[in-house]
Amino acid sequence: MIEVRNLEKSFGPQKVLDGVSLKIETGESVVIIGRSGGGKSVLLKHIVGLLQSDSGDVLIDGENIEPMNERELIRVRSKFGMLFQGAALFDSMTVAENIGFAFRHKKEMSPEQIRCKVAEALEVVELSGIENKKPSELSGGMRKRVGLARAIVYQPQIVLYDEPTTGLDPIVSDTIDHLILRVRDRYKVTSVVVTHDMRSARRVGQRILMLHNKKIYATGTPDEIFNSSDPIVRQFIDGVSDLKNVDF
Amino acid sequence: MNFFAGTWVAEWVEGLGRIALLATEAIGSMCRFRAAWRDLLYQLYFVGVKSQPVVLITGSFIGMVFAAQTAAQFHKVKMDTATLAAVGVAMCTELGPVLTGLMIAGRVGAAIAAEIGTMRVTEQIDALRTLATHPVDYLVAPRLLAGVLALPLLTAEATFLGISAGFGVAVYYYNIDPVYLWVNMLKHTADTDVAIGLIKAVIFGGIVALVGCYKGMTCGEGAEGVGRATTEAVVYSSIAVLITDFFLTLSLNALFNGV
Asked: Which residues pair with A63 in a beta bridge?
């Protein structure tokens, strides 16, 4: 279970999160929506301990990770897999080396076992046979899928997705959405998806949280959020800009 | 004016503190053998083998230039046969380690900062951390160890090449007797001179690798950030090599020569 309590974070004078609290149950699939630059990715990075908050707590299975140092966090992070916005593949390595990276220190696994795990992960993301390609040889959608394969290969309990469909065409976005659902159902993982792609949010989320004005502004099932009459939620869902109050 | 000077000093001291913390973490990682052997071997290849052309040219040409200058000056006081002794001591204690350190700062320090900096801005370091890998174990420890191991070897190579090339210039260009040159060099170049040079090289190797890693890991966003980190890595590690050299010279002279 993931629990965030009164999380606050500033970068210099700019406050990004101001008292964010949320709870995500084990096995749940939650989508966090909100405007660009609204702090969604910052919140996600706090959940996996990549950023340290100014105040507040982040509890993973009841364990507060905020006071932990980098070495202590390694143990907690082995519960997580994360797909980054730009996939963040190691560009000096092949696809197979990227995906098998998590096993490089596991001496009990033979190279053949690692090869099988890599092939299995690539099969899940429907990219079998590209083990020897370099990330620079892949398209944006393929990079995301390889990033997803790397995130799930060691079967984590929680998978975090940072804008998984941003920059992709609708058909590739649809593929990624199906892969997120497949990973959730196949490995029974807790999924946290940060996106501003409303089609994707509706498809992959069992619950949607909306981050607005540095706080969790609204929460509900996809139907509740999409049928909300709240003007701020509606404005975001319908994608209507306010020309009198332009803010970008 | 005072405010800006104060801010600059505070940032400078903070930077030194951060490098010290990084060094502590990296040395701890090295001592616990957390760095993988294959990463260390690759870094040794990158720092040592790939630097061969640079070290070869630097070592031999500085030896030749120094021999030519020394021979010309010593000729005035009829001390021609002491030319190689001066070249030997200078190459072992100063020119070998310092010039190799500076050349490696330019080649390796810049490459380390650019590579780690690019990894940082493309979230590859964050990806490492989510894959339960400590960035210091994977990125810093192998580079620091490679710098500390490779630089003394490169320095020894540059020193040998410098003395050999200087010998060639003194014998074939200035027609100085080779036997006197050789005997005088052996007489005046002590083991402690070689030791001083190698100790300096170990420390310079550590400085270049650490500054490169630190600048890469703390670089700003985007291409501009990586470019700035790369430039600063070269400038700061070169300055650090020169300043450290002065204090090392004083302390090692006191230790080995009692002066």
From this structure: A60
- What residues of chain A lie within 8 A of the CB of B29, using their CB? none
Specify the DSSP class assigned to residue A37: T
Spatial separation of the C-alpha atoms in residues A178 and A172, rounded to whole Å: 10
The residue type found at A96 is A
- Write the DSSP assignment of B58-113 as a string of letters: HHHHHHHHHHHHHHHHHHHTT-GGGHHHHHHHHIIIIIHHHHHHHHHIIIIIHHHH
Residue B19's alpha-carbon distances to B26, B164, B207, B208, B214, in angstroms, are 10, 38, 10, 12, 6
Mean pLDDT of B129-142: 92
Asked if A64 contacts A72 with a C-beta cutoff of 8 angstroms, the reply is no
CB pairs under 8 A between A and B: 52
User: Could you tell me the strand order of the sheet in which A55-60 lies?
Assistant: A14-24, A2-11, A55-60, A63-64
- Per-residue confidence band for A107, with pLDDT thresholds at 50, 70 and 90: confident
Please determine, for residue A243, whether its predicted confidence score (pLDDT) is greater than 60.
no
Nearest Cα of chain A lies from the Cα of B35 at a distance, in angstroms, of: 10
Q: Would you place residue B92 in the very low, low, confident or very high pLDDT band (cuts 50, 70, 90)?
A: very high
pLDDT, tens digit, 9 for 90 and up, residues A188-200: 999 999 998 888 9
CB-based contact, B37 to chain A, within 8 Å: no
Q: Distances from the Cα of A215 to the Cαs of A22, A39, A168, A188, B95, in angstroms?
A: 10, 9, 28, 29, 61
Laid out side by side, the sheet with A158-162 consists of A80-83, A158-162, A190-194, A29-34, A207-212, A215-220
Amino acid at A227: N
Cα atoms found within 13 Å of the Cα of residue A75, Cβ hemisphere only: 9
